[in-house]
Specification:
Blueprint: H1 6-23, H2 31-51, H3 56-68, H4 70-86, H5 95-109, H6 116-134, H7 138-166, H8 169-189, H9 198-223, H10 232-260
């Protein structure tokens, strides 16, 4: 039975997430990495619950883990994306130097541990999700997974084809999210079923994730007043990197991903 491990795996992941949340206020210098690992685990669990066709409220409780802890990670990602895009030192007094300083400062400010009330609420949500999984019969959950996996895979295929046919940023963004949900969820509920596509879908998620990070950085610069006209050097590099990344994503989708779905 392909989904025989679903109940055990989902429950263990839920308990693991709850335990990691409990340790978060004491994470200290390792807070950023701890939040990153929690959010990754949360995305896997969310994918697993989507496949298991869980109640929407429970899926929302898991989604809130990433959302409420997002400030810490998002600021760090913007800073890391900038460093990868622009490299090392910028000319003193330049727009690039100012942007770098602002991003670095925001990343530092966002490194505070979340409030205890937030952690407690998230842990309560994980306990609720865990109780739901614990109350499911293995056979019942496996049947839900059979149906849910098929529907989520069809949704992924539809999103990827739409991205290839239309090339809209929103289509690639949605394809990235669904790919992460399906792959992450399947590694929990039916890991043997994804062996043939796991590597290429992981590669695609990383490529589309980088493209998304570039878009987030661009939106941040626009919001801060650093438009294309005001910071042309940065925008030229950003657009060049976006074009390269999009080309790599399209090639991988056409040649490797869609034929295996």
């Amino acid at each position: 039975e392909a989904f025989a491990v679903a109940r055990t795996s989902l429950l263990a992941t839920c308990r693991q997430l709850e335990a990691r949340l409990a340790q978060l206020p004491e994470a200290g210098p390792g807070l950023g990495e701890a939040v990153h690992e929690i959010r990754k685990t949360g995305k896997k669990l969310r994918g697993g619950l989507l496949i298991a066709r869980a109640d929407k409220k429970l899926i929302w409780r898991v989604a809130m883990v990433g959302r409420l802890l997002g400030r810490t990670r998002d600021a760090a990602v913007r800073w890391e994306t900038w460093q990868g895009l622009m490299g090392g030192k910028a000319e003193v007094g330049s727009e690039e130097a100012l942007i770098a300083r602002m991003l670095e400062h925001e990343a530092g400010e966002a490194s505070d541990a979340p409030q205890q009330e937030v952690v407690d609420w998230l842990r309560a949500g994980m306990a609720e999700v865990g109780d739901f999984i614990d109350g499911c019969l293995m056979e019942q959950l496996a049947e839900h997974c059979r149906v849910g996996e098929k529907r989520l895979r069809q949704r992924l295929r539809k999103r990827l084809r739409r991205a290839v046919d239309h090339g809209e940023d929103a289509d690639f963004h949605e394809a990235r999210k669904v790919a992460k949900f399906w792959l992450g969820g399947m590694t929990l509920v039916a890991p043997m079923r994804v062996d043939l596509i796991k590597e290429v879908l992981t590669d695609l998620a990383e490529i589309l994730g980088h493209e998304h990070d570039l878009g987030v950085l661009g939106a941040w610069m626009e919001a801060q007043g650093f438009s294309r006209a005001r910071a042309p050097k940065v925008w030229r590099r950003l657009r060049k990197d976006e074009a390269r990344t999009r080309k790599a994503a399209l090639r991988l989708i056409r040649r490797e991903v869609l034929p295996r779905l």
